[in-house]
Structures are given as C-alpha cells and as structure tokens.
C-alpha cells in the first residue's frame, strides 16, 4: 500500500493519488501503422477507455522496472507520485505518443 512508503512528499490520500496518476498517464490518441499503396503511414487514432487504462498501467510499471537498485515497491510508488504530479517517465511516454500523433495528423483521413 502507498501509505507504507516513507516519502515526505507523499500525498495523504493514496487512492486519490493512484487515480490521478492513471488519469494523467492515459493517452487519448495513438498512432497505428497502415499500409496504403505500398507505403506505411503512421495514422493517429483515438484510444478507447479500456486500452487507455491498460497502456497507462503498462507504462507506469515498465518505467518503474527500468530503474535499478531499489525495491520495486519504492520505484513504483515514486513513479506513481511523479505521474500524479504530471511528471515522470510514464508521462514522457504519453507526451511522446501525443507528439507523434500530432505530427502525423495529415494522415488521419486514412483511419
């Protein structure tokens, strides 16, 4: 549980922090490859709610696992706290996906 993690910056309501972290990391759009006329296009598409949530969980866990040298509970808690504040590596992943979708907006009509 998040309450057991010793972090002076930790919010008091851990469940609210968890929900805020997931909401912040959820992507609204993603790019998918679509082959048209022998050329692959990165087509931006909306992400349904269930996939948004699964991607958010996946990214937070992946970024926590990447960090070495500390217990997974501590790394996961730190990544969740950072995501709740709108920071952290999982947020960077989301922003990168959104930037890619924005850059390929011209191909949205292929969706």
Automatic annotation (TrEMBL):
Keywords: Ribonucleoprotein, Ribosomal protein, RNA-binding, rRNA-binding. InterPro entries: Ribosomal_uS7 (IPR000235), Ribosomal_uS7_bac/org-type (IPR005717), Ribosomal_uS7_dom (IPR023798), Ribosomal_uS7_dom_sf (IPR036823). One of its GO terms (biological process) is translation. The keyword RNA-binding applies. The keyword Ribonucleoprotein applies. Gene3D superfamilies: Ribosomal protein S7 domain. Residues 10-105 form the Small ribosomal subunit protein uS7 domain. Pfam families: Ribosomal_S7. GO terms for cellular component: small ribosomal subunit. GO terms for molecular function: rRNA binding; structural constituent of ribosome. Belongs to the universal ribosomal protein uS7 family. This is SSU ribosomal protein S7p (S5e).
């Amino acid at each position: 549980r998040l309450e057991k993690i010793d972090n002076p910056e930790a919010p008091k309501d851990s469940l609210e922090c968890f929900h805020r972290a997931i909401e912040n990391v959820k992507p609204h759009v993603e790019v998918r490859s679509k082959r048209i006329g022998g050329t692959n296009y990165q087509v931006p598409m909306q992400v349904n709610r269930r996939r948004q949530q699964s991607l958010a969980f996946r990214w937070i866990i992946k970024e926590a696992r990447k960090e070495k040298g500390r217990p997974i509970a501590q790394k996961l808690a730190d990544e969740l706290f950072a995501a709740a504040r709108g920071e952290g590596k999982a947020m960077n992943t989301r922003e990168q996906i959104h930037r890619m979708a924005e850059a390929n907006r011209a191909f949205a009509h292929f969706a």
